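batch job 7 of whatever, protein = Sulfurtransferase
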Amino acid sequence: MSAVLISPVELREVLSDKRVRLLDVRWALGDPDGPQHYLNGHIPGAVFVDMETELAAPPSPTRGRHPLPDIVQLQKCARSWGICQDDPVVVYDATGGMAAARAWWLLRWAGIADVRILDGGLPGWTNAGGELATGTEPDPEPGDVELSPGHLKVIDADAAARWRGVLLDARAGERYRGEVEPIDPRAGHIPGAISAPTAENLDANGHFRDPAELRDRFAGFTAEPVAVYCGSGVTAAHQVAALAVVGIDAALYPGSWSQWSNDPKRPVATGS
């Protein structure tokens, strides 16, 4: 697997290469104002990417809140972002990569080999002296990238139910334990899953933890197949990225809890 992260200093160096495509993926649950955040300030040359309409298919109880988009539609979007064949891509947000990792995962899954997450996101960029642009950018020249699905591992609900390796639940601990459930119909977790909140991948400054710390966090998982889910398959991609940093090739369950909890036939566990 190619490098997962890029630092603000490294990004500044590679932006001289006009082939680098820069995607602004600002999104957070309960915050619909990503487009306005982009207009208020973004890395020069970045294209805004919409989580709900470009990085996911329409939600449904049977597929979850953020199903994987159709590959034809994803390719159409990627070309509208200006991505050409073999272009390197850098994705960022303002939340430690929690949303940008979805774009990282999707584009890697669709066959783009060089996609990296800006470590520290927009705050990391500005803290390192990076400039911001405001307003809109000129529309990029349409790209010609060819996408195909299946370049990263995916599992469905049936595979999650019979998973024989390590199944990680990337949601906050209180949601895993079933103490609260703010959005999905049932509280708890998939039986047998291990709680591993995505937020613990980050340090106090919103950067990915040092690889040694991540290696310690995921110690013991290298000998077994690993799969990850979250609420709707977004922050689980961040967990897949953190695992990739330390050389663990994990599968993603895209439907995640939003799909599982909507199926009354699926069992639910609570507690730690």
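notes: The longest strand covers residues 21-24.
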